[in-house]
Amino acid sequence: MTETDGSTFVSTITPWLSVRNGKRAVEFYKSAFQAKEVYHM
Question: Rounded to the nearest 5°, which phi and psi values hold at 3?
Answer without folding.
Answer: -140, 155
